[in-house]
Amino acid sequence: MSAVNGQVSKMDRAGHLRTNQTTLDQMWQRAKILHVADARLAVEAGGTKLRFLSASQVQSLIESGEYKLGEKYFLGLDEIDQEPYFAWNSSSVAPQGEKAPDGYLTLREIGGLISEFEMEISLHAVALANWHKSHTHCARCGAATSVAQGGAIRTCDKDQSEHYPRTDCAVIVLVRDKDDRILLGHQPVWPEGRFSCFAGFLEPGETFEQCVQREVLEESGVLVREIDYLGSQPWPFPASIMISFDAVTDAPEIARPDGQEITEVKWFSRAEVKAQSDAGTLLLPPTMSVARKMIDRWFASGAEGQGGAKLIGGETWR
Ligand SMILES: [Zn+2]
């Protein structure tokens, strides 16, 4: 079976270029610039492609008084033609309220529609924007911090301490039984009929495998073994990476929800997942999520998934 998220990077992050401000300034002038505005991304009409700005277009948006000066983050060089890419993180001067301006959508909204390359750029840009937004002050002394090294870090304006972006680890688990059925759970905050894999944050001093066992036991009551790593996916909502595993339980009959985070658990065969998702009574997780990739991978590995049969639903977030 293929990995859940095994594609190699199409972007050279070119970390060695981050420390030279003159080089960064020169690259900015010819860069493809992704505008991140209030956690939304600039997109072309239709919302299936990112919209890149030039440095002069950014300048015009600032001079028009529409957008703040913002911050620039160097994302890297395109591996094919070495074009530099930047994110420009700048919110609008006038408060936007809940309604997004035309041409801007969230990563959740476009994640299932854009190309892998654009997804990689978007994940990097959004993760950086989220981190910078919440680290405007020094954790040591409370003074203001500033962007340094092309957005890779922030430094304290007072004591010059360096602050690095944080990513929170969360495990996500596809629990199977000996008959190769899967156990999915329903969270009370989800729409009726939505079921997904079990997930939770890694605690300090815990291995991924221990976290898998603890989270599955807490949420579904079953003990798992044969814990195998499947792949990982950045999930910057706001700052996670999902580390995915497959695990097996010998006692499927004892599964029960914890009643808090999970209010319902169900075992599904491939035929049941197919029939119920086709009928719309089972809502699968969105196609951009690692949970969905795990379910699709499991489905494709059985007889029902041979010959190109695919699970449907979840192309857009709901
Ligand atoms: Zn400080």
TrEMBL record:
Residues 165-290 form the Nudix hydrolase domain. Its EC number is 3.6.1.22. Signal peptide: none annotated. One of its GO terms (molecular function) is metal ion binding. SUPFAM superfamilies: Nudix. GO terms for biological process: NAD+ catabolic process; NADP+ catabolic process. It comes from freshwater metagenome. Keywords: Hydrolase, Magnesium, Metal-binding, NAD. GO terms for cellular component: cytosol. InterPro entries: NAD-cap_RNA_hydrolase_NudC, NudC-like_C, NUDIX_hydrolase-like_dom_sf, NUDIX_hydrolase_CS, NUDIX_hydrolase_dom, Znr_NADH_PPase. It catalyses: a 5'-end NAD(+)-phospho-ribonucleoside in mRNA + H2O = a 5'-end phospho-adenosine-phospho-ribonucleoside in mRNA + beta-nicotinamide D-ribonucleotide + 2 H(+). It is an enzyme of class 3 (hydrolase). Its cofactor is Zn(2+); Mg(2+). This is NAD(+) diphosphatase. Belongs to the Nudix hydrolase family. NudC subfamily.
